[in-house]
Amino acid sequence: MAQRDGTTRRMSFGQATVDAMRSAMREDDRVVVLGEDISWGGNFGQFRGLLDEFGPDRVIDMPISEAIIMAVGVGAAVTGLRPVASMSFVEFTLGAMDEIVNQAAKFRYMFGGQVSVPLVLRASDGVLRSSAGQHSSSLEGLFTHLPGLKVVAPSNPADARGLLRAAIADDDPVVYLENKRITAKRGPVPAGDHVVPLGSAAVRRTGADLTIVTYSVMTLHAEKACARLAEMGIDAELIELRSLVPLDLDTVLSSVVRTGRVVVAHEAWEFGGFGAEVVAAITGQAFDRLRAAPVRVGAAQAPIPFSPPLERAVVPGEDEIVAAAREVMGLC
User: Could you state, in chain order, the average pLDDT of each consecutive group of 10 residues for the chain (332 residues)?
Assistant: First the structure.
């Protein structure tokens, strides 16, 4: 676990994941990495330098076929290795859904617990600089819907390292989502073997008037929104989920019960998004404590446009969170 003396190292989100990979591979020679072009570091440098230290037997370039990458990853996992499979962009997982849905997610159940699938699927998601419809999606709702998969989505370097360490150590398949916009974001990372347990949310800001629940890049927008709301006299509490499955619903409910109002925000499409599940859980377990109907913030129901103005019109940010908070407070 992290050292107790408060010592930190400053690094980017991407560097934190490389550090986590390096630590895991040094500790356990069963940890291997596979994907397209990862020998030179991956699309966003998330595997940079690993080939030099661990060689091509553990940092394995694969053919341009996500189905093959996942099939090899699942086979390696059930026969004793602990593979980390890179899908590059999250949309590319769609070419491997049979292996993800029907193999990785179901094997433990179908074999009566006699086999585990200690596999991490890493994928870059979210919007970045007009990447357009096929390289800008947030598909966490697909993965959270599937029994047998765990799903995490960190927003900062410390959690990027800590959650990846926990994902690699887990005996079940974990989908590790790293938003493209925050790959270069820098921040402090606790020294030592920093691990963030799966299923633990974080209270990023305490407040009394309403609760904002979010994850991944939307956490950064929410932090700015909270500052703007404070200038308006609205005291918002910010809960970052970090882990979507397993979900730390206790932390969410504890906050909502106190504030009585909630906004759930994510970059993914609002319709059918993960926020709907969070809102359903809140209303199902804390309906009598709500002072107003929950409000969701998500992308409009359209492919992500290439045009920057159109992209901004579809994808929510700080302004939409502020507007939702004012709505739930009855101010608009």
Answer: 67 95 97 91 83 95 95 97 94 96 96 95 91 87 97 98 98 96 93 93 98 98 98 98 98 98 98 98 97 97 93 96 97 81
Q: What is the DSSP string of 227-296?
A: HHHHHTT--EEEEE-SEEETT-HHHHHHHHHHH--EEEEEEEESTT-HHHHHHHHHHHHHGGG-SS--EE
The CATH superfamily label for domain 9-190 reads Thiamin diphosphate (ThDP)-binding fold, Pyr/PP domains (3.40.50.970)
How are beta strands 82-89 and 295-299 bridged, if at all?
A: unpaired
Domain at 202-328: CATH code: 3.40.50.920
pTM over 0.90: yes
Residue 221 annotated among the catalytic residues of the structure: no
List the end-to-end C-alpha distance of the chain, in Å, as a whole number. Answer: 46
